[in-house]
Sequence to fold (276 residues):
Amino acid sequence: MWKGVISFGMVSIPIRLYVATESHSVTFRQLCREHLSPIKYKRWCQAGDHEVPYSDITKGYEVAADNYVVIQDSELDNLPLPTSRQVEIAEFVPNDDIEAGLYFKAAYYMEPEQAGVKPYHLLRKALAETGMTAVAKIAFRDREHLCALRPVDGALLMNTLHWPDEIRPVAELKGVDADVDVNPRELQMAKALVENLAEDRFDPNRFQDRYQQALMEVVNAKVQGEEIVAAPEVEAGPGVMDLMDALKASVEAAKKQRSARTRVRKPAARKAAAAG
Fold:
């Protein structure tokens, strides 16, 4: 979806950019309730009172009320901006220095062109062995992006980042700066709960999109004319519980879950060892 070079000091690495993720979300069509026919939207010109084919649509930037400057796609492709064809590395920072939960956005794989294979892997290995992330800028999709480059599974992964002025301050939240005394016994029990739910490493394969599964069950049942099975009633929890009592009950439940997970994983581990 983009072609250019990584600028690494005096080294240029020709690369191609590919979207690294894909959505499997179920989408719905809007239908007419009476005819069950798909709804279509028309591109309509208000001044000429007529429908406009997609080929006759151009981009415009509003400089004043109802006053537009027309911008051609070719002009966007040739902006006087180095980052329109270059991933311009500005600095390197430690891997854990960028708050992933706040700054990271879309993920893209970087693939080297044939002439850039060696410097590509040189940069990848340098990042891996120093534990650093490259911070750069790149321009595509009508804007310039701040981005981060990291080695992942033998390749370079680029994540676009939010600009600082796009991050809302925590100070806007209520209650986060409250002066609360934490009971040491409650803290110890909370830490025990964390430890019993802890795993050695993050494995996304442990998780499934149950919403999509449930939705497809409803769709298939309707196609086959079967009765739709309603969601099970959620068991009502106990009334107001003391925080310490709630923590104790949670720890006990977590211990049972951990024990069950261990029993399931041991046979699988033995099978994998035998196969190896």
In short: The domain at 2-19+81-166 is CATH 2.40.290.10 (Ku70; Chain: A; Domain 2).
